[in-house]
Batch of 4 targets.
Target 1
Amino acid sequence: MKNPAQLYLAAAATILERIQATQLDALAAAADICAHTIASGGLVHLFATGHSRMFVEEMFPRHGSFPGFHSIVELSLTNHNQVVGANGQRQAMFLEHVEGLGKVILRNFVLTPPDSFLIFSNSGVNEVVVEVALEAKRLGLPVIAVVSVEHCTASSPKHSSGQRLIDIADVVLDNCTPAGDAMVHVEGLNDPVGPGSTIGAAALTNALKCLIAEKLTALGEPPIVLTSAYFIGSQASQAQFDAAYDDYRRRVKRVYG
């Protein structure tokens, strides 16, 4: 009999297999949107609440990534270091259900075509992420959603519009995680453990990144990649990081104008 670690790894492998079997067309469509945005001088805005913030940072900046993405991350919605007390988890979980907050957040930025939005949310139903998607669409920007389609469709809409993220997005990327997220049942323990959405969403994020890099290069706009010194040496790596950060600064000036 497999132990819980083996059960989790097997479930994680199943997620990756499902993504490869079902998500390639959606990944290509999402990459087309993002590549068009970046090649046209725009920004792919990244938004998430809760633990989905991880995938915003996974997209950029880190080794093997490149400018063209702009993170919109609220600490009040994503900072889980202090579980209780000031800036605690209860407050963050309360705020992601407050209608109106999404519009207030986006009011801080100048958002115009050819920009686009990439929104991460495992459930796809909380009020703030739905409102951000609705506002992006109102501004004429395409929306890509990364969700668990199984969990999202099994969940009742919470936003007053009656819509889920998958109802609004132009492209939906399914992280192929089972509803409820936790995947492993331990003998003698009533509740499942071992969330799978981290595996699925991270895989989609990096697969999408690779496709975007390919499309930008084919368009004659090869991205400036944050490249490890392992590949090109420390001096060239530092120079490339500086060039990428300078490119990022140039791109984001407009959104704070």
Note: The chain has a mean pLDDT of 95.
Target 2
Amino acid sequence: MKMNGEQLIAAPRARVWDALNDPEVLKQCIPGCQSLEKEADDRLKAVVAIKIGPIGAKFAGAVTLSELDPPNSYVISGEGQGGTAGFARGSAKVSLADEGDATRLTYNLDAEVGGRLAQVGGPIVDATAKQLAGTFFKRFGAIVTASEVAAAPAPAATATPPVAQPPAATTQAFAATQVAASAQSALLPWIGAVFFAALAGFLCGRAGLAEPWQGALLGIAIAAVAAFGYNCGRRAGPVVVTLDPEVARLIAREKGGSA
């Protein structure tokens, strides 16, 4: 019986050629292959169990590679004895050709069977042989394509551009400015407290209080009230200080008198 076919494999020709000479790959592709051992560079020993029509048999034989023309073509031949079931032998010319980034694999197969297998009938034997050949090359193409995908380099990850950082000098200057502003804002309430304490002492002196310590005590009380207000302001936010109308009139009167 004779048959031919072709298959497009998504892999370069060199990779397809290497797979055609790899015993492990061939073992996975041959239907019913139980073992495949390399005896020489061009010879392998195989055990294959197949069924043709109602007859099933285990064939032990050899697989030979000849007419080697790497990485373009070769002839793969096999012959096996199946005991009382008979024998099977055949050969296939396999050719490779580039087709873009892929490889076009073409095969021409010639096979025959003998013994009881030959009694099954030509149509059944032909149909089985075509099925076995189709299965072999379909598996072969899938394995080589998968290995090519696995060997392809992963796309490089896009690096995230670094966030621009302000210069160290700018950061330090900003921090120093913030510290200075904070210190200035912290001094203002105390300056105000000292001012009002001095003003209260002055007013008490003008009012004729008998003892100086009374004016000092009043100033300390004002400073304490200012400190308390400052602490509350830090916790609760800005505080608006409003002078008592009487104090405001006293201040206005003093200013008028001074004028």
Note: The first strand starts at residue 2 and ends at 9.
Target 3
Amino acid sequence: MLSCAALLAGLLRALRPHQWIKNLFVLAPLVFARELLDPPMALRAAAAFGLFCLAASSVYLVNDLLDVQADRAHPVKRMRPIASGRVPLPVARTAAALLAIAALGGGWLLGPAFAATVLGYLVLNVAYSTLLKRIPYVDVLCITAGFELRVLAGALAARVPASGYLLIATALLATFLGFGKRAHELSAARGAEGHGASSRSVLARYSPRALRILLASTATATVATYVVYTLDPATRAAFGTDWLVVTAIPGLFGVLRFVHLVRHRPRAESPTEEMLRDPPFLANLVLWVVAVVIVIYAGRF
């Protein structure tokens, strides 16, 4: 019988708190609206971030519950808490339901529109886990939609606009990351010569050449969109500076570093998880965040 401490530790790992960094996209509208220093807005945005973390963890539990048999046949994923038995199935089901209810209940306090985005996020991911993840390219677009919902939710919670540039750049970046993940998984599966290296049946319907083209295309489009945004006269006038374009340099490095991880870390479980353990990528991410905040908010002081 599992001890209470072991069960809690396993459940915490199953919630994947390291993946909560993706929910920082909820804060993006507030940052680029130059309202990060407004306490009421910042508090609402922080609450939105926390609620999306609850929703995301609920989704991870549901996904692991649905994939438990496939994960047990996977050389890496079989060590996940639910697949390995460290978190019993009834406990995982109960935790997933409670987290979803808490996210929706808290979301309603921030407003019906925000709660609707949380509900949309949950419904989208249930549809993804049960059906859409088996459809090539549609599965990646589901990932993109999830990030778009995060940005929209952040704008609704903080009561600031989500610019068209922000939504387009987010969509392109999320699609780029999604295709990178699929390219990495396909490479790992082929490297293992099909000996149960992947639990994704959809990979057989992906073309390595098509993924390379899509990865390069979305990478280029992401960086180009961000550069155009920084050079837009309206952007320069809103921030009162021409220096935002400089932040495109670490942005470009981050994209290139992710491509490197996709191609050269075949044994990693996921390139998106690997980048969170990669010192050059993390240092560059911190540099980009600091540079953006300094450039955007320098005029406020």
Note: The two ends are 58 Å apart (CA to CA).
Target 4
Amino acid sequence: MDVLRERHRMIRSEGAELAVFEFGRDPGPDTPTMVLVHGYPDDHRVFLPVLRVLAPTHHLVTFDTRNAGRSRPLDGAGFTLAELVDDVLAVLAGIDAPGGVRLVGHDWGSIQGWAVVQDERSDGLVTDYTSISGPDLRHFSRWLRSRFRQPGLVLQGVGQVLRSSYVGAFQLPVLPELAWRYGLARRYELTARRNVGADPVRGLALYRANMFSDVRPPRRRPVAVPVHVIVPLKDPFLSPHLTDGLEDWVEDLTVTTVPGGHWWIAREPRMFAGLLDPALRTGDA
């Protein structure tokens, strides 16, 4: 029998109607609650492989971000990081999690997660945070500038600029939409083994609202909750060196490297689950 019995509902934030999905055990004081936030161009389904492993022992919550899946922004709402953080906090406030929430983010979901754990409103709600393939935007900016100030690190900076070149391409009018509609979406669907519909085109707003714009990320503050950064060493978009300097403002930091690419989370769900819950690292979880 499929352990992924889905409970679906809508939660409204100030700027969006969010499709929220719960799996696994019912919430309770002895059941850990984990909230997983996906990235671009995915929806909540990118986590289904790992949810299947975690479901017997966890209360699991994921949702389609406002640019993806069954969720929709409301009239006049945008896609700034501050608005995305409001969405995550609306979900945290709308679910039953007696012992607090373990937050997990991938790609843009990870970028959101970094901002959430630095927001005072998450204090007492988030017990720990796991980040995969998505840096804090302020840290990313400072890290990149620091590479070009130190001759021995310039190649790291150049390498990351090349890895991030797609971000600049996404700022172009019309062409990114055409590329997704007439080729890229189909290629990604074959790799991900799921239909993405219009999500890649809708999600371009994330890059256009937050990159190369006058919008500034939420302010940075020291992070007191434990943070686990999982670094796929074959990620084509992010340098594994981006973790350098995190220890300066993350009080309890663990960094784990894994031999995979950007979507390692879907291709190695048992290994991923074992990093999220050490009790699953041995035996047939």
Note: The mean pLDDT is 94.
